[in-house]
Amino acid sequence: MHIDLPEKRYYKIGEVAKAFGLNTSHIRFWEKEFDILKPKKNNKGNRLFTPEDLKNLQLIYHLVKEKGFTLEGAKIKMKQQPKIVKGNHDIILRLESIKAELINIKKEIS
């Protein structure tokens, strides 16, 4: 899944939820369920997600929504083979960005 967010240091939960097509409560639930999600909180308690948090969210989204893993299954998969899962996900993200770029080039040519 390719998310379209501008380059920033921190993202608010509403921006993240909109980019992923999820509710903010869904993001908060995943934060409780997965240890790799650790957004910072400001003085008001608002969650601020870093680009690293977004990569972890993309990985969770990929396993749960695209591959059909249960939350428990996704946790087990990430604990058993963390480097393989992250490496494969990074490759998928790069291929998706290449595909998007090729589609843009095709549109410009047409």
What does this protein structure show overall?
The protein is mostly helical. It has a single domain (11-109), classed as Multidrug-efflux Transporter Regulator, Chain: A, Domain 2 (Orthogonal Bundle). 65% of the residues lie in helices and 6% in strands. The protein contains five helices and three strands, in the order βααββααα. It has helices at 13-20, 24-33, 51-66, 71-80, 82-109, and strands at residues 11-12, 40-41, 47-49. The chain has a three-stranded antiparallel beta sheet. Strand 2 and strand 3 form a beta hairpin. The radius of gyration is 15 Å and the shape is globular. It starts with 10 loop residues before the first strand and ends with a helix.
Brief characterization of the structure:
By secondary structure, this protein is mainly alpha-helical. It has one domain: Multidrug-efflux Transporter Regulator, Chain: A, Domain 2 (Orthogonal Bundle), CATH 1.10.1660. The protein contains 5 helices and 3 strands.
- The CATH topology name reads Multidrug-efflux Transporter Regulator, Chain: A, Domain 2
Order of helices and strands: EHHEEHHH
Overall SS class: mainly alpha
Strand order of the largest sheet: 1-3-2
- pLDDT averaged over residues: 86
Main CATH class: Mainly Alpha
Shape assignment: globular
> Count the helices. How many?
5
Overall strand count = 3
* Sheet with most strands: 3 strands, antiparallel
pLDDT below 50 for ≥5 consecutive residues: which ranges? Answer: none
Helix content: 55-70%
